[in-house]
Design brief:
4-stranded mixed beta sheet, alpha/beta, 63% helix
């Protein structure tokens, strides 16, 4: 069972079968996780601190307006109940002034809250992206353990920041209003305050009992919705391959299965929410009746004016609302707890995969190493040997290199040593399909670390996979990926020349056209584009994983001819036609053994 499901089932057991003690422990854990995710923004962002302080001040002002409005309302209804024309006019005037002055305060208050929400979401999303891309965690993360990382970054972070802010302001507002209106209530009928405390405690307990299932149900809702959406995205991205296979029926069945999980989960949520809403409605409606029932005898006896009754009712409803925040917002809070679980498990997964961070490091803490670390792709598991990658100025060597599959069940390359003095040209890696040629290249690139030994390669290296990657953006972005030409040293003429050299002159006029270039260009054209990138990047060393597999022999000869005059390289290939562009050959066998020799010999 993966970690996330352990979190889910553990939380479900706590709610359904554990007891009060475990529920309190789970609540404390949720609060601890919440604070660990929320506080870094206020600690590290000066702008965030300022926005939050202004938000607190506006909350106090807004609550003050509510209290003033309560007294204005009392005078208004007192005059109305006593048929006091002059008092009614004065009360109406006060009432109107408070409304006019209070409306802008409410508008500014809401505006400031939204500004803070945007700033917080911006900061936390950028921090999450930094953590996710640092140390190539995005490559190492296993979707079977952490599902839908894209949804967690785009939607779960948004939901967390929005509701966190809403919750913080709601708690602060409830504290201020609760104290203010409690004073009003005690001055009118002290016993009502005791009634409120008992009423709120009983209501919260019953709500927790009825709605306890909502947390795990909302956890699954987020996952099932993301899985369904991801299936639709895959259908769109692989439309041509699916159409060639005639796989519409299989895809439809898969989509329907995932949809049914969404629907079944939603139905379970509906049943629980129905039961919870029935109790919540009774709880709220009774809060309107109880204060009147207690104050009415005094009003009938002439001890109170009508305005006092309405003020007591308003104060009781307000204090009850402030003390019963869990009752009124249990559905939202349960969804929020599910979101906290998903985010915390995501950040824990990121931390576990980044060897530059300790297991006790704060979830949102950055490190200095980042993606530029020479050993950035090591998964920190104790007792496991790993390949050591040393980036050098110009040296390429493999020293006692053993490459294993990530699960360590198979040795692909065993004790391979190629000294710098042995290889002063280009290296071709050959072998049967599935023997581990591309895996060895991943080990040299630093993508695979399971094994042992040392890889030395030039720091300025460039990797060409068999299926090139097309980034989002224009053709110019494709050519300059990943550096982006930040220093503006590459001119448009150079881009056009590079396209012409690789046989893509027909798209040279579309440098600034934004398209999905992975769909616009065929696989062969994408491989040509990758070579154009390499020519523009001018690396000291290149790694090619069957980078011309979709091209004809003539095109392959042209591209390798350009490469020979540009940089040293190691490539994986099957065709004999590429032998003439290499000086050495490394042949891999199925048992992990390999042979190294000069091609000329």
């Amino acid at each position: 069972m993966d970690q996330e499901n352990q979190n889910y089932y553990g939380f479900q057991d706590t709610i359904e079968s554990s007891g009060v003690k475990n529920q309190v422990s789970s609540f404390r854990k949720q609060v601890s996780l919440y604070l660990e995710l929320a506080l870094p923004y206020l600690h590290e962002s000066k702008n965030g601190k300022m926005l939050f302080i202004v938000m607190i001040l506006l909350t106090i002002v807004n609550s003050t307006v509510n209290v003033i409005f309560s007294y204005a309302s009392k005078d208004f209804y007192n005059a109305l109940g006593e048929r006091d024309v002059e008092g009614f006019r004065m009360g109406l005037l006060k009432y109107t002034i408070v409304l006019i002055l209070g409306s802008p305060v409410q508008a500014i208050y809401n505006f400031q809250r939204e500004q803070l929400a945007v700033a917080w979401r911006d900061w936390m999303t950028q921090r999450t992206i930094n953590l996710y891309t640092q140390a190539s965690v995005y490559y190492l993360m296993d979707e079977s353990e952490i599902d839908n990382p894209d949804q967690r970054i785009a939607q779960d972070v948004l939901a967390f920041t929005n509701y966190s802010l809403k919750l913080l302001i709601m708690i602060l507002d409830n504290i201020i209003n609760g104290i203010s209106f409690s004073v009003i209530l005690i001055t009118i009928q002290p016993f009502l305050f005791v009634v409120i405390l008992i009423y709120a405690i009983v209501g919260t307990f019953i709500t927790a009992c009825i709605g306890g299932k909502l947390v795990p149900l909302n956890f699954n809702r987020l996952r099932y919705e993301a899985d369904f959406r991801y299936s639709l995205v895959r259908l769109r991205e692989h439309a041509e391959s699916i159409a060639f296979y005639g796989g519409e029926h299989a895809e439809k069945e898969n989509l329907n299965q995932r949809l049914q999980r969404v629907v079944a989960n939603r139905r379970d949520l509906n049943h629980t929410e129905r039961n919870l809403e029935m109790f919540t409605n009774i709880f709220i409606y009774m809060s309107w009746v109880i204060p009147v029932a207690f104050v009415a005898p005094g009003y009938m006896a002439g001890n109170f004016h009508l305005g006092v009754v309405t003020q007591a009712r308003a104060a009781f409803v307000q204090v009850t609302s402030d003390l019963s925040i869990i009752v009124r917002h249990f559905e939202d809070l349960s969804a929020f707890c599910a979101g906290i679980n998903r985010l915390s498990s995501f950040y824990e997964g990121i931390r576990d995969l980044d060897k530059s961070r300790s297991n006790s490091a704060p979830l949102l803490a950055l490190t200095d190493g980042g993606s530029h670390s020479s050993q950035r792709l090591s998964i920190p598991r104790s007792g496991v040997t790993r390949i050591s990658l040393h980036q050098t100025k110009s040296t390429f060597a493999l020293l006692n290199l053993t490459v294993m599959t990530p699960d360590a069940e198979r040795v692909l390359v065993r004790n391979l040593t190629i000294q710098q003095k042995q290889i002063r040209g280009n290296l071709l890696i050959t072998g049967d399909s599935g023997v581990g040629k591309s895996s060895l290249l991943r080990g040299i690139a630093g993508l695979w670390t399971r094994g042992e030994g040392v890889v030395q390669r030039p720091m300025k290296s460039f990797f060409l996979p068999q299926k090139p990657y097309c980034t989002l953006g224009s053709l110019r972005h494709q050519l300059l990926y990943p550096s982006g030409n930040e220093d503006n040293t590459i001119l448009d003429d150079q881009l056009v020349v590079a396209l012409s050299q690789v046989g893509l002159s027909h798209v040279a006029s579309e440098l600034d056209t934004n398209l999905d270039w992975s769909q616009r260009l065929s696989l062969g054209e994408q491989q040509r584009l990758a070579f154009a990138r390499l020519l523009l990047a001018k690396p000291d060393f290149a790694l090619l994983d069957e980078a011309t597999s979709a091209l004809d022999s003539n095109s392959e000869e042209i591209l390798y001819g350009l490469l020979v005059n540009t940089t040293r390289f190691v490539s994986v290939g099957h065709r004999e036609s590429v032998f003439k562009y290499h000086h050495y050959r490394l042949h891999l066998a199925n048992n992990g053994e390999c042979s190294f020799a000069s091609i000329a010999s």
